[in-house]
Prior knowledge:
Layout: H1 2-9, H2 21-45, H3 50-73, H4 89-98
Helix pairs in contact: 1-2, 2-3
Amino acid sequence: MDWFIDCITKNYVNFSGRARRKEYWMFNLFNIIACFVVMLLDSFLELNNILILIYVLAILLPSYAVTVRRLHDTGKSGWWLLLMFVPFGNIILLIFCLIDSTPGPNQYGENPKRF
């Protein structure tokens, strides 16, 4: 849960630096859980998807930011995020987010893994 809260509070729109795999996947895990809770709450209160829309708009920038930082961790530019608009580009982005960090520092900063 700390990874999710850190992405929301400390790194809300921080597109610089690097994010390790654990930060990226924990953020996405808790984002999916939060989406599920918001959807249940929205349907229970019969608000016609208003809460879902508010949540998606609120979480859009942090999710892009953590994805760009994850791409930086693998040595890729954040512009690779635009692959999501290309057919099958999400598969390539998924592979980029699954691969391990580049060892040591790269052009985007120090390796976030602390050995």
